[in-house]
Amino acid sequence: MPLCPMRQMLDEARKSGYGVGAYNVNNMEQIQAIVQAARETLSPLIIQASKGALEYTNLIYLKHLMAAAVEDNPDLPIVLHLDHGPNLKLCKEAIALGFTSVMIDGSIDYDKKTPDGKHPARSFEDNLRATKEVVDYAHARGVSVEGELGTLGGIEEDTHADKVLLTDPNQVEEFCKRTGVDALALAIGTSHGAYKFKHEPVLAMDLISECRKRVADTAFVMHGSSSVPQELIAEVNKYGGKMPGAMGVPIKSIQEAVKRGIQKINVDTDGRLVVTAAIRKVFVEKPGEFDPRKYLGPAREALAALIASKMRDFGTAGHAKDYKPKTLDEMKKFYTKKK
Ligand SMILES: [Zn+2]
Ligand 1 centroid vs 83 CA: distance in angstroms? Predict the structure, then answer.
């Protein structure tokens, strides 16, 4: 089975009413763990890499690790997605590497810096222009595109939005129509990182329903959707970590969001936490251990179990054989017809 276009995977999810997790990767163990979870639960899968991940792996290593995951799992529909693409240049590079989907985060101008070292937010029209440019390039090659409207709080690699600006549903309809994006990240009150909230969060659920009412066939994306399980934080801290007060989005809120119209759920922090907890545990319990396989191995197992539980919770489990992935050539024709 070839790589899957994201457009098709999220169309299928929307029609059947489930969410697909998009999991960030930087190394071999993470990639292996995530595809193992998908294999065990028979789930379609989005593997995503940020600009930071591509830099960390010198592009080429990550490309081949992802390609290995696809080759090793010919029966799974897998999307390779660029997370928070800062500009057309990096989107082009990702497409050249074989990604079947790119995000252009036009909500922030990554190429400019304000005097305090942050990237400024873009105006609606500037966001629209930056996004449209990527859509034109990507769709001509059959590649799917995710955009973003509104800004998310918290720190993700290279994302320095300091305040949350909820998505305006009035703009969503116009943005989707004028750019032709396949998926759109909505700012509904989630935030990147492990320290999202002080109390259980109130997310703007009505905003999702309102956007879904106005736009029928664009997938909606929820960023910063790690649940930051308290037992995981306790585990990290038990073995010498210091993460007091970390808190995320409860699974039941994610399930509610999926019911109202979210199809793609971005998860990064929970994966980092489970890996950190597993490695810390080995270091504390076996201080004489110095074979990396002896701590990266358990970390990989723990990550696979965590992702498998998410695939069940998001409703992704069991849907891997529902459809045959389209080729990028078929998608090119699909986009030409749509114009
Ligand atoms: Zn994000």
Answer: 7
